Amino acid sequence: MAILIENATVIDGVADTARENCSILIEGERIVQVGDVDCEKLPAGLERIDARGRFIIPGLMNANVHLFMAVNLESLSRYWDRYEDIILEASQVALKHGLTTVFDTWGPRRFLIAARDRIASGETVGARFFCAGNIVGLDGLFSPDFFSRAQEVASAVMTRRINAIWAEDMGRHLMWKTPGQVSAAIDAYLGRGIDFIKYASNEHYPGAFLAFSPDQQRAIVDAAHARGKTAQAHSMSVEGLRIAVEAGCDLIQHCNKTGPVPIPGDTLDLMARRNTGAVVFPQTDAGLAWLLENLPEEQQESWRVSHRNACNLVSAGVKLLLANDGAIMPPEWPTDPQWGKSWVTAPEAFNLAKLTTGHFVWFEAMAEKGCPPMAMLHAATRNIAEAYGMADDLGTIAAGKYADLLILEKNPLLDAKNYRTILSVMKSGKIIDREALPEHRLMSRDIEAPCEEEGRHIPFLGSGGRFPFSCC
Asked: What residue stretches are annotated with the Amidohydrolase-related domain (predicted)?
């Protein structure tokens, strides 16, 4: 099947400016020609799309998502046999909202690989995705690294199984190993089908402690590169960030999150010189104001510093990558007392963490921080493809690359909010029926209506320890 898109303004991610009255010829999954197309040499059976007055950009990419975030005990139990379906649902939601390629940086490896391969084979529709499995050096889902409170109510059988599904043999015990032993473990893990390595330079929370020594980190990166795979680090402090850059990481996740200490100038310079991919989690001014008003005081300085870091990364000319920990949370999630008010439960207008709209918030936040419009587009397309070693196939609109395109109603270079004006999504040369996605709603469903018995139920104690039935 051949498609000719005509009369468009194309922002291809290659040229420094948009190309007006431009055509794109697509055959099968890939782009054949961009620019002036010889109409006398067009293939038979061609489908023409008139994109006059429209703007075409490469399909958006996200450098850090979590396609399985049904990590509350309720969902893990309720959907025990549907983990793969949840991942497919999230990939379809991502595609619906303009993300044609995403990178899952933490999740249940076996189920992610199965869903990834179903999409890659064409068996089902979804955003193209690549996965890392566990964050090397962190333990399982029900461990102190993540949600240890679940151990208080889950059986020992379930706790052991869930932790094993997430961490396998890539947990905290590796911190005790020699660099050579860590390297061997990484090589074995890559042999299980993951696409790249993500390891912990810092612990997860509060994040100041180093997880692996500099020598261990270099061994991890070298082992990944020896297999032709990229390596990235989870960093949470200025020292964790610096050591990961010096270890040779291809990209660093949420590198603007460095606790109460801003990134030193020499580390910014080092990242720029080495062309290290800087994954940034920015907040809009409105989002930052909400966080400072609603979060505990000990978290507020961290968010102020993350805002300052994002601005400094822009000014230093570091290679920026769009990401947001994008996920679909279970609909019951906001009512879980463990979460309350946090950056992942913020109002949707400036909630960075949503898989549906968080990438649009990212553009708006970075525009406020002075990031040039074309640099923002590159951060969401070309830079991600380069950092993950996939620039031959993805990231720009050019001959030979996958035909991953968005048709927008308005010019995104004029206003970051125009990224929201998606008219059509094309992935691998096929127009996506966005209205049909997701095909099955599990995490994206509405919360169930109250059951019959809830209308008659009288709790013994209400909020605040009061008797709800008391007339006094």
From this structure: 55-432
Strand boundaries in 73-200, DSSP class E? 99-104, 128-131, 197-200
Q: Which helix (H) or strand (E) holds 408?
A: strand 405-408
CB atoms within 10 A of CB 327: 25
In which element (H, E) is residue 370 found? Answer: none
List Cβ neighbours of 87 (8 Å cut-off, separation of 6 or more). Answer: 67, 68, 107, 111, 112, 115
pLDDT recorded at residue 463? 64
Q: How far apart are CA 299 and CA 85, in angstroms?
A: 35
**3 state DSSP class of 407:** strand
pTM: 0.96
Give me the sign of the Cα torsion angle 226, 232, 238, 240: negative
7 conformational bin, left if phi > 0, alpha if psi -120 to 50, beta if neither = left
Distance from chain centroid for Cα 460: 43
Q: What whole-number distance in Å separates Cα of residue 30 and Cα of residue 39?
A: 19
Mean pLDDT by 10 residues, the chain (472 residues): 95 95 97 86 88 98 97 94 98 98 98 98 98 98 93 95 98 98 98 98 91 98 98 98 98 97 98 98 97 92 97 98 96 80 92 98 98 98 98 98 98 98 98 98 93 88 67 54
- What domains, with CATH codes, occur in the chain? 60-392 (3.20.20.140)
